[in-house]
TrEMBL record:
Molecular function per GO: FAD binding; monooxygenase activity; oxidoreductase activity, acting on paired donors, with incorporation or reduction of molecular oxygen
InterPro entries (alphabetical): FAD-bd, FAD/NAD-bd_sf, Ubi_Hdrlase_CS, UbiH/COQ6, UbiH/COQ6_monooxygenase
Source lineage: Bacteria, Pseudomonadati, Pseudomonadota, Betaproteobacteria, Chitinivorax
Pathway connected to this protein: Cofactor biosynthesis; ubiquinone biosynthesis
Name by which UniProt lists this protein: Ubiquinone biosynthesis UbiH/UbiF/VisC/COQ6 family hydroxylase
């Protein structure tokens, strides 16, 4: 006997799970959104979140359609107008701008907690979405008739579809018996924000070194967000450095392009891995976001892929006829098929670039630097790559 009847039960109210709940708001489907913990309230001061994301124009359009984007203060968002990618040879550079492909911006840089709060507030206002939080799922069962989820307090929720949006170490994925060995990059992404002596000019900068990939993303004003993906030992060393020494190391690694740096948020490190699953659906089950795939952050596309999952899954569920079972494997396969190519392409490109650049092989060194310089000179190829990175702007129907 269940305590709550639902149509779609989503476990995980991170950016992707919340966006899926919101994409189903206003539909005839009853949605239950469950998370172990609510997002922390926004700070009252003007401090910055360490977790910063590059959001593609396609994701921005999706989040705008959901009514979440408009909830974020414009003065905390920073457009990327230009991108400069450098190899380890001085003359190996790939540069492109929004104007090259006639779009207003290449990406928007924003704080995780701002977007999470905007989504959370919007979900709370949705009539057909019930939030259960904090809640700890302890048991799940998928059968011919229903998906049911038992919580630690004994409540049972029954629905027609269970969605795992519970991140890289997904409990739902494990319970469903969908397994795959992640490839550990033995690298961590070190993140920190800095105030810069010189303005970044809305340029995102990236350097590919044999021992890591450094990205400087523009934040409002003179601020800059760093993601330095490097081998575990070096990442741990960077995080442990005194603030002044870290600033000097980071400035030096980026050829002092923005002058002197001052640390604004403490450095933190996140382990990096590649996770590819052969299937992301089964009967009464679908996976979205990091529960379905993990990619190297060098292209800043992880959560963008997740938003595309949410958009497409919501579209498939809403398009189902009144008599159709939304937990039916064949119906869920439409979502899986629609996402397969995109996920694989992003995993192949990011993994390939990581392997090509993060090694000491001199032949590969020549190849990667020549490749960058050549791509820079080949207009059509360059423009195709940029268009792909912008994300599909037809995400929203
Ligand atoms: C260094 C770094 C930089 C990155 N930069 C970018 C970038 O610039 N652009 C980009 O697109 N992506 C980027 N990413 C990737 C991005 O961080 C992830 O893809 C994204 O956070 C995944 O969101 P999610 O909602 O799927 O999962 P999560 O953010 O992990 O959310 C999962 C949610 O599920 C909840 N949960 C987990 N387990 C349970 C459970 N058992 N029961 C109930 N609730 C549960 C958690 O509390 C959480 O709220 C970066 C990643 C790293 C490491």
């Amino acid at each position: 006997m269940s305590d709550l009847q639902s149509d779609v039960i989503i476990v995980g109210a991170g950016l992707v799970g919340s966006s899926l709940a919101l994409a189903l708001a206003g539909s005839r489907l009853r949605v239950t959104l469950i998370d172990g913990r609510a997002p922390a309230p926004l700070p009252e001061d003007d401090s910055w979140d360490t977790r910063i994301y590059a959001i593609s124009p396609g994701s921005q359009q999706f989040l705008t359609e959901l009514g979440a984007w408009q909830r974020m203060p414009g003065d905390r968002l920073s457009p990327v107008s230009q991108m400069k990618v450098r190899g380890d040879a001085q003359d190996a550079c790939l540069a492109f701008s929004a104007a090259d492909v006639r779009v207003p911006q290449l990406a928007c840089i924003l704080e995780n907690r701002l977007l999470q709060d905007a989504l959370w507030q919007a979900v709370k206002a949705a009539d057909n979405v019930q939030i259960i939080c904090p809640a700890e799922p302890t048991h799940m069962a998928l059968d011919g008739h229903a998906a049911s989820l038992t919580l630690a307090d004994g409540r049972v929720i029954e629905g027609r579809l269970l969605v795992g949006a519970d991140g890289a170490n997904s409990w739902v994925r494990a319970q469903a018996g969908i397994t795959a060995a992640p490839r550990l990059y033995q690298q961590k992404g070190v993140v920190a924000n800095f105030a810069c002596e010189r303005h970044h000019g809305q340029v995102a900068r990236q350097w590919f070194f044999p021992d890591g990939i450094l990205a400087w993303l523009p934040l409002p004003g003179n601020l800059m967000s760093m993601v330095w993906s490097t081998w575990d030992a070096q990442a741990d060393e960077l995080v442990a450095l005194d603030a002044d020494i870290l600033c000097e190391r980071v400035a030096q690694a980026g050829n002092h392009e923005l002058g002197k740096l001052k640390l604004v948020t403490l450095a933190a490190a996140f382990p990096l891995r590649l996770l590819h699953l052969d299937r992301i659906v089964s009967h009464r089950l679908a996976l979205v976001g990091d529960a379905a795939h993990n990619v190297h952050p060098l292209a800043g596309q992880g959560v963008n892929l997740g938003f595309q999952d949410a958009c497409i899954l919501a579209r498939v569920l809403k398009a189902a006829g009144a008599g159709e079972d939304i937990g039916e494997h064949l119906l869920l396969r439409r979502y899986e098929r629609a996402r397969k190519e995109d996920i694989l392409a992003m995993q192949t490109v990011t993994d390939g670039l990581q392997r090509l650049f993060n090694n000491d092989n001199s032949l590969l060194g020549w190849l990667r630097n020549t490749g960058l310089a050549l791509t820079d000179r080949l207009g059509p190829i360059k423009h195709r790559l940029i268009r792909h990175a912008l994300g599909s702007v037809d995400m929203v129907s």
